[in-house]
Structures are given as structure tokens and as C-alpha cells.
Design goal:
82% helix, 388 residues, mainly alpha
């Protein structure tokens, strides 16, 4: 595996930390900038929206530029807006920096996935994708708890500053090691790539990625409150539970990367069937500490393992859209990450029971299974296709 792919993984780790660390910084931001907790929490939604809207546009623009300049430019912008966010006293400015950070993060990730898969043989594309997504899972394991602790000890501004510092080694290595040429093949236009992305196989893979990630974050967003209000654990146990989920996610991503070839093999299909069952088990056993931690590890592994496989599936079936496939995979993942917690919030708000977040996850995962089953051609149809 080329060393530069791990450099990209380091940058993705820093950016993932920025995306997820806000959950532990909201109270401090609200106090310091004299806004409501709800307003401070909206910074998370701003980031998700920026990721969803930014990925296709930034990938399309970046595909025409030299890859080194594109990656370095996105990462430099990411550092600058975090410095601005760390020193501003205006909430509107901070809100704007989160949108810009998300847009350049989306662009970086989309181009990085395109570059990473172009640097390896087809047999290793799944592993290359897993290395990048490992940066996201590592941010859950280490970056987010560290950001929360730093925010507690030194204030939320120090967490923003730390993300900027964390990006600097990756930025230096991008300037030194990134491929210099343009990512796009000269004979391929954006219109042609969009036509590829409209195919049924690509749309199916994107839909499944959104559903599975929606199921993941519907519960992940509520793990802390499930721990304190349902399992009645002390607040000090929350970082451990989040880390347990992250450890499972890291294992799942890397296991999927070793086995991924762009196909949905029998083992992955079985894992998809296990996913809604696991969320249901979490909902039913979340009042007990040991089962809660165990299921968190298992569901982290299943969720991110399946999610990683589906991202690789998108890259595989959209191989003729090398510049935009990673962008639309990013859109699918972030659409799920945005909608999942939204649905969970509606369910828990209506019932007052935070365990219903896990039931929402189970429903979304079950929907992914139903969509997969509905998309399979009938045997007669398959025979007619073979005859052609």
C-alpha cells in the first residue's frame, strides 16, 4: 500500500475529529458566545449540510486541477477556517466557518478517494478505501474523546486550534508526496460521469450506503444520553462507551477492507441481516451496562464494516466516473448521518424514551435489506439477460 494513502488517512482523521468533536463542545460554545444550546448544536447540522452540498461541486471542480494543488488547497482552507473559528467571538462567523470547513472537507475526501484508488491495483482498492475510512473511525476512538477532554480543560477554542495543528503534518506531506497530475482522464466529462452515476447499480449502492449510515448515526447521536438516562451510568463512562463503539468501527472497517473487492458477498449479506437485529438488541438491553458496551462494539463493527463495503461498491460500479464517484459516496454517507439523527430525534421527542433511537436504527437497517431484496432480478429475468 503506498505510503501516501496513509498520509491521506491522517488528514481524514483530523477532519473527522472536527466533524464529530462538536457533540462534546456545545455547552461551552453556548456559554461563551451567549447563544442557546439549540443554536450551538445547529453547528453540527451546518457541517452535515456543507458536506452534502459541497462534495459533488468540489469534486467536479477539483477533478480539473492538479491533484497536489487540489488536496493542498482544500486542506489549507480547512486549517484557516479552524483558526478563524478558534478566535472569533461572533456566532454567525463560527457558523459560517463550519459550513466552509465541511465543503472543503467534502472536496478533500472526494478527491482523496479518487486518488487513493487510482494509486493501487483493482484488487487493493477496497483496502485503500478502508485506510481512508479508518481515519474517520479513529477520530471516533481517539479524536472525539480527546477533543472533549481538551474542551473541558482548556475551552472549546483550544479544540479548534488542535485540529488546525493536527492538519499541518498532513499538509506538509501532501505538498511533498501528492501526485502532481490532474485526476480526470481528458476524455471524460462531468456529463458522462453523471450519466454513469444514474445507473441502477450505482443508485442502489448509494441508497444502501445512506440507509446503513443513517441507522448508524441515529443511535450514535444518542449513545451518550442512552448511557446516562437509560443505563444510569455516570457521565465519566460516556467517553468509554463512545470509544467502545469506535473500536468496533475500526475493526469493522479494516476487516471489510481486507475482504472487499466491490462485490456484496454472502458474508456481507449476512452482516446486513444481523445489523437490524443488533440494533433491536441494543434497544432491549440498554438498561444494563455490560450488554450495552458489548453491543456497542458489535454494532460499531457491523455498521462501519458494511458502510465501508458499500462505499467500495460505489467506487466499483461507478468505475467510469472516477472523479465523482467518491463525491457521491460522501454525499450518501452524510445524507444518512444527517437524516438518521433527525428521525431519531422525532421518535424520541414523541415518546420521551431514548431507546427508540435504536429502534429507528433497526428500521433503517431493515429498510436497507428490503431495498436489496427488491432490487434482485427474478430468475426468469436473469435467464433472459443471459440469453441476450
Amino acid at each position: 500500500m503506498p505510503v501516501f494513502i496513509y498520509v491521506l488517512g491522517l488528514a481524514v482523521f483530523a477532519q473527522g475529529t472536527s466533524e464529530f468533536m462538536l457533540s462534546g463542545l456545545v455547552p461551552g460554545i453556548a456559554r461563551d458566545l451567549s447563544v442557546s444550546v439549540g443554536a450551538a448544536a445547529s453547528l453540527t447540522s451546518a457541517y452535515a449540510i456543507g458536506m452534502i452540498t459541497g462534495a459533488p461541486v468540489m469534486a467536479a471542480l477539483g477533478a480539473r486541477w492538479p491533484r497536489r494543488r487540489t488536496l493542498a488547497g482544500f486542506l489549507t482552507a480547512f486549517v484557516v477556517v479552524h483558526v478563524i473559528g478558534a478566535v472569533t467571538t461572533d456566532f454567525a462567523v463560527l457558523f459560517g466557518t463550519r459550513i466552509v470547513a465541511a465543503i472543503v472537507n467534502a472536496g478533500f475526501l472526494a478527491v482523496a478517494m479518487s486518488v487513493a484508488t487510482a494509486l493501487v491495483t483493482p484488487a487493493k482498492k477496497g483496502r485503500a478505501t478502508a485506510v481512508l475510512l479508518s481515519g474517520v473511525t479513529l477520530s471516533c476512538v481517539a479524536g472525539v474523546p480527546a477533543g472533549a477532554l481538551l474542551g473541558t480543560w482548556s475551552g472549546w477554542r483550544s479544540a479548534f486550534g488542535a485540529v488546525s495543528v493536527l492538519c499541518l503534518p498532513a499538509l506538509a506531506l501532501v505538498f511533498r508526496s501528492a501526485p502532481a497530475g490532474a485526476a480526470r482522464r481528458h476524455d471524460l466529462s462531468v456529463r458522462q460521469e453523471v450519466r454513469v452515476l444514474k445507473s441502477g447499480s450505482v443508485q442502489l449502492a448509494l441508497t444502501l450506503a445512506a440507509l446503513v449510515n443513517g441507522a448508524t448515526f441515529a443511535t450514535f447521536a444518542y449513545l451518550a444520553v442512552i448511557a446516562t438516562d437509560v443505563a444510569h451510568l455516570p457521565a465519566a463512562a460516556v467517553p468509554g462507551l463512545l470509544a467502545a463503539f469506535g473500536v468496533g468501527a475500526f475493526i469493522g472497517v479494516n476487516a471489510a477492507g481486507l475482504m472487499a473487492d466491490g462485490q456484496l458477498r454472502q458474508g456481507m449479506v449476512l452482516a446486513m441481516w444481523a445489523l437490524p437485529a443488533g440494533w433491536a438488541v441494543l434497544a432491549m438491553t440498554s438498561t444494563q451496562t455490560a450488554p450495552l458496551f458489548i453491543v456497542a462494539v458489535v454494532q460499531g463493527g457491523l455498521s462501519f464494516g458494511i458502510g465501508s463495503t458499500l462505499v467500495n461498491r460505489v467506487m466499483h460500479v461507478a468505475a467510469d466516473a472516477p472523479s465523482l464517484s467518491g463525491a457521491f459516496a460522501t454525499v450518501a454517507l452524510n445524507a444518512g448521518a444527517f437524516l438518521g439523527p433527525l428521525l431519531a430525534g422525532a421518535a424520541t421527542g414523541a415518546t420521551g424514551d431514548y431507546r427508540h433511537a435504536a429502534w429507528v436504527s433497526a428500521a433503517l437497517a431493515a429498510t436497507a435489506i428490503a431495498v436489496t431484496a427488491a432490487s434482485r432480478p427474478s430468475p426468469a429475468h436473469g435467464k433472459r439477460e443471459e440469453a441476450r
